[in-house]
Write a structure and sequence with these properties.
Blueprint (H helix, E strand, L loop, with lengths): L13 E5 L2 E4 L5 E3 L2 E5 L5 E5 L15 E6 L8 E6 L10 E4 L5 E8 L8 E7 L8 E6 L3 E16 L2 E10 L10 E4 L7 E4 L1 E7 L4 E6 H4 L4 E3 L7
Parallel strand pairs: 1-9, 10-15
Antiparallel strand pairs: 2-3, 2-6, 4-5, 4-18, 5-8, 6-7, 9-10, 11-12, 11-14, 12-13, 13-17, 14-16, 16-17
Length: 232
Amino acid sequence: MKSNYSVEFPPLRHLVFGGDGIQTFNLTASCTAGFWVLSRLNSTPYIMTAGHCSKLGPFNPDGSVDFYHLPWGTIEGNQLIGPMAPPNISVIDKGLILKQNDSIGVIPSVRNTDDIDMPELKIIGTVDLDTVGSVVCKSGYVSHISCGVVLSLNTKVFQGGRLYGGIAKVSMMPCRGDSGSPVFPLVPDLFPGIFITGMLTSRHVAKGYCVVVPIEMLITDDIYVLTINDLI
């Protein structure tokens, strides 16, 4: 029997998880998506990541840089997320990528698809990074999930020719190409839930540590981290 009507399904969206890859046009640079944040003013969604990821362009006329989604296991992204406005990385190495493409889906989770039993870690909130000796983990595009021990807090490091303060040093874990990775405490009793505690911005191989910016330095009064509670 021939139907006289058709059913239209909503378009499939490309979900961008924390820990997924992001790249600029023509692979000028690739980094890792940190986590989604929302504007308190108008609920506009942005991806927070390392600001230095945009330093090589290519630049739009307004100075912004477009970023594309790069899921784990892929080498080229073809889904535009949106632009990162020129970031001020003089004090904190962070940048915000505006979600401009309606085909991109927002999800308050971190990718963990190497684990078939727990392929995503759901963000349930944030917690201060305040305990030396604690174990934290990150999800990154290149090295996926890896963990290290917090070596020191509120320290100063040189990065990209700049001196940054208030930084946490974490024992060396694979993090090359993973700038922007979300960092969370290792608390198995909470899984698949996690708290975001910071963002990885660089590594110092010779000195044996990765650089993590604590969450309290990343979140300002005008934005907040998207959690699973926001979907209820």
